[in-house]
Automatic annotation (TrEMBL):
Keyword terms of this UniProt record: Membrane, Transmembrane, Transmembrane helix
Protein's UniProt name: DUF418 domain-containing protein
Keyword Membrane (UniProt): yes
Pfam families reported in the protein's UniProt record: DUF418 (PF04235)
Source organism (scientific name): Shewanella livingstonensis
DUF418 domain sequence ranges: 228-379
TM region positions: 21-43, 63-83, 104-121, 127-144, 151-168, 202-229, 241-262, 274-292, 313-331, 343-362
Taxonomic lineage: Bacteria, Pseudomonadati, Pseudomonadota, Gammaproteobacteria, Alteromonadales
PANTHER family: INNER MEMBRANE PROTEIN
Keyword Transmembrane found: yes
Amino acid sequence: MDEHRSPINPIRLANLDAVRGLGVLGIFFLNIYFMGNSFFGYAPHEVQPTSDIVIAILSNFFLEGRFFSLFAMLFGVGILIQYQRQQTNIAMTCKIQKNQRIKCRQYWLIIFGIIHAIFIFPGDILLSYGVAGLLAFRYITLSADELIRKAKWFIFLSLIPIALISLMPDEQVYLRDSAFFIEQLSAWTGSYTQQLTLHLNLLAYMLAVIPLTLMWFIAGLMLLGMALYKRNIFIDGLDNKTLWQCVFWAIILSSFDSLLSLSGKPMWQAISDLLLWFSAIATALIYIHIIVKYCQNTPHRLKLLQNVGKLAFSLYILQSIVGIVLLRYITPDWLYSLDRIGYLSIAIIYSVLQLLMADIYLRRFNQGPLEKLWRALVSRTS
């Protein structure tokens, strides 16, 4: 990929909205498994049905980690765009004042993430993204090549502790209909006070893990996103050589990931978790390329997807509320019986609803409620 100059006066890119929209819809296909038991997620059968195996393989190729990586790159792009806008803002002549506004956005994102993790869904990503964003911002002035080198180091270093955590033996067997499975679901569908206790425990775990692993991995992806933006990848897409390299590694790594994850052996499954992160990056880049080439920065192409992207923050939080209310309060019995195809069906139906909701909402309003709140809080405190 050749070096290009990113726009000095960046405008809203339809391509970015469409990519963000895909990320918002896609992340629910993974989070839905954790709306019941937010720590262990989906409980496999001792003898897995064919539909579960097929969906698991498809997920390894197209879903797992893909939208997490996609969002991290987009957050990096968002920070860079904000930074470039601040540089052209005459009202902000002081460099410290300019930087403070961007940092303030990350601080508020962290606060939103903590509130979300405690009171709604402990599988929150906002806290991790906010912390990682503060780290990534330190390197925002680097060239695209320097950003990529730094991103590689961050990602590599983060995978060492991730590997150690993955290889730790798990004494509990979390299988469908096991005593441990029933005990866990009983706790997660108990009173709200019980759920808050579990949320706080999981948040404490995340606070311990983030500085060691997620902060560096996500920051690496954010730096990669900045580099892609500086090289105009979000306008022109990938060059052919890079695209086919991504396709090659996505297929190879996803294939090995699927074989190892279905082996039934803890050691191989732990290794598959590491392969997943690399295949996710390659696949996320392919998704970016496809949307950029099809959308071509045209507001009327992929408009429904763009609408979802414009309301990403609000829809992400709403996903958590809908998923938690549905599976823990309205239909908790589903948690004992739903197979992967059931969760997939819920995700598909709700994705269609999100496309419709975003379209209807933006006919009347220009900005999502949480997007508006976030901007107002940043304006008042920076």
